Amino acid sequence: MKKVSKSWKSFDFGPDKISPKRTKSPNDHMDTFLVEQKFIAKSHSKDSFFDFFSDLIPKTTSDLAVHSKKIEEVKVCLERILSYDNTSFLVLSGPTGCGKTATLNVLCKEMGVSISEWINPIDQDFELVRGPNQVNRFLEFISTESNYTSLFEVSAVKKIVLVEDFPNVFVRNNSEFADILEECYYKSRYPIVFICTEVANNKNNLMYNLFPQEVLTKYQITHISFNSCAPTLLKNCLRRAHDLIKKNKDYFQVPSPDTVDAILSSSMGDIRCAVNQYYFASLLGSKEMPTEKSFRVKPSAKRKRNEKSCNIKIMAKDETLGLFHALGRILNPKRKEHGKSWRLNCDLENLITELESQPENVISFLFANYIKYFGDFSELQEASDLISLSQKFFEKWSETRDLHQYPLWISVMGLMIWNSHKVSKWNQIEGPKKFKKNILRTKETLCTLDEFYINIIRKNHNNS
Amino acid sequence: MSLLWCDKYRPKDFSKLDYHKDQGMALKSLTKDGDFPHLLVYGPMGAGKKTRIMCLLRELYGPGVERLRSEVMNFTTPSNKKLEISTVSSNYHLEVNPSDVGIYDRVVIMNIIKNVAQTQQLDVNGQKAFKIIVLTDVDSLTKDAQHALRRTMEKYIATCRLILCATSTSRVIPAVRSRCLCIRVPAPTTEEVVKIIVETASSEDVDFPKKLAERIAVMSERNLRRALLMSEACKVESDGKLTPDQNIAEADWLVMIRETARLILAEQSIAQLKKVRENLFELICRGIPSEIIFKYLLDQLLEQCQLGLAAEILENAAIYEHQMIRGNKEIFHFEAFVAKCMYLYQNVLEEMKCDF
To answer: Which of A378, A384, A437 faces B284 most closely, judged by CB atoms?
Structure first.
């Protein structure tokens, strides 16, 4: 559950061989680990096994697979918070494997700033000994220990505190975190950087839960959000890996360009995932990776697409769909021939699971937009019939959510199956109409149906 | 601001009622002992349900019940959503329409009844031992709320009485129905409506032509409140001179529904469906109850469509209306119905073309 070794923390680039330096804290808490991160440019001697991952760790900003503007933004921000006297916070957020931690590490190294990072202690003894609880330790770390410079640093003038591994309590208990922020705001001397991974599910989204807007403004927290890695940058990154592999042909084989393409397309902008796959593909003796050719996209005159796009069958990252992406799939259903009949070319199960958390919202969205995507009236009529049917499940008084996936199934399938003459032009997705019934209640007998007459009478009274 | 006719001449006493006099007397004798069971008053709109309820309250508490004040109550749902609902109350009773807050009506019902029921009357001898809560539009309450109602009805019978007001009992759960004395208030006959219009007008010193009153009575569908409002609207529009064949203004929402029906039959296409959808959205936003929109839309469609489709349209209307009442999001069902009608109509038109 909780991991403490350096290898865990830097699994950005897989297991590496640098053992973390643990400075024993001035106080005698054995299990609070203060990991001083050091970048040791490793000169590999002939006898030592070549370490793919440690060599691949970006050492300069140009190695980073992050957009240069973004790096600049983080840099400017770091400089600013370091120049302040009192504590200031910085929050980096973004999807997994987009280079948040790597960017910070590289920048700190360039600027000569040391990082001291909080890592959740493994406290197997905890149940027996009943030591101070995790939150207290976290607080202690952040407010006290981080104020001392490391004994191993020669002259670390500047230092930042990094929190990436949030104590688990905060996931459930957000208010406690706010208290701690409050305390740190006054106590801590060094700037604190938080790194939050963004996830689709709001329930686990630390960024959303721990740093709501009011907290951000209260403590003047700078928030920099990262996007997932762009394909070109990802390609550059793999090229670096490629060069490394070429230099060490004794240990590795060079993967075929096809495989590289497949890796690129299936890693969904996650560098960590891409590098791991690449590593796997280049191991000596491994065969060509099983790839899955996806539907051939006909090269149209307008858009140049890759003639084939293939995905790695195994080890690929799960595809995550945003709401709008999913809506697009439903509203523009694709078919594939299946003998004389046809089937929907879509993984319906996945699509539905993706949308299950908000069925009512999805159906409202579908309803607001589906008309534009139909070309044939009789089909539209059938689809609207099914959407109407699906609403039966959202009975006004039922708050049980178990049933709610069925209306989703009905309406999604209804729309996808009946839509054959799909309109291929670009349509803007509209949000569902929000309307509020305006009902007046006054002392007099009023009924919305009779308002018209009342208005006539009142108007004439006012005129005369 | 002067009072509307329908408010000004509303009977305040059972003896002043214009029709259903026997029923009035029965209600009067019901309260003779100063106590009565929970009531469920139902009947079509504008038939005088509220009038009878107010008469009953007056009979019990005296003229004090007419000193009304409206206030906004605040509630918080278990999920921390803030609700606001406007209520009308006097010292003795409280009137509220819980369906104003949609699916949160259960919270409103439980809280209001608790609030009212837990405060005991100070002077038991001088006043009645109970207060009265009038709940309107009970038929549009969610099932949850109705079940909550049945529980609270029993629990607080010592300190409060409920008067429920509904258009029809079909959507009130049997458990609630059986706990109440059901009183049906039928709509007045056309003759009664005519008589009331003419009498009301004469006490306002207006000479109201009988022919016009008859037309109004028919047009208002025996909805007395609407009939009186229509008469007054006619009066103010005619500059003092009423003629038997005067134009009676038609409510704007009715005009809009007719227009919508025309749109449906004029063209059957996807673009047209979009227009219809916008029209329906507007009607719903105006606060027109969806059952009424459905009813008039169907009427208009049947009237305007001459192709012998009546049976099929009716069949579909029955299906979608039922779905609409069971589920939520009226607009979905309206659209499905409209699309179906368009489709049927289009088919018939095409067949006719082939025949030629």
So the answer is: A437
Q: Which residues of B touch A444 (CB under 8 A)?
A: 3-4, 7
Contact flag A377-B251 (C-beta cutoff 8 Å):
no
Q: Can you name the residues that pair with B164 across neighbouring β-strands? A: B40, B135
Cross-chain residue pair B226–A448, CB shorter than 8 Å: no
Please work out, in degrees rounded to the nearest 5, the angle formed at the alpha carbon of residue A136 by the alpha carbons of A132 and A139: 150
Distance from CA of A366 to the nearest CA of B (A): 11
CA gap B206, B216 in Å, rounded = 16
Domain layout of chain B by residue ranges: 20-184, 190-237, 252-355
What one-character-per-residue DSSP string does A181-225 give? Answer: HHHHHHH--S-EEEEEE--S-GGG-HHHHHS-HHHHHHTT-EEEE
ipTM score above 0.95? no
Contact call for A377 and B269, based on CB within 8 A: yes
* Per-residue pLDDT at A264: 78
pLDDT value at position A402? 67
The predicted pLDDT at position B182 comes to 92
Residue B98 has pLDDT above 90, yes or no: no
- Beta partners for B181? B39
At residue B162, φ and ψ (nearest 5 deg) are -110, 140
What are the φ/ψ torsions at residue B311 (nearest 5 degrees)? -60, -45
Q: How far is CA B60 from the centre of its chain?
A: 25
User: Which token pair is B328?
Assistant: 């939520």
pLDDT of residue A161: 82
Q: How much is the pTM?
A: 0.63
Does the structural domain B20-184 have CATH classification 3.10.20.30?
no
The verdict on a CB contact (< 8 Å) between B336 and A385 is yes
Q: What is the pLDDT of residues A40-64, one digit of tens each?
A: 333 333 444 566 777 777 877 777 8
Domain B252-355 fold: Zinc Finger, Delta Prime; domain 3 (1.20.272)
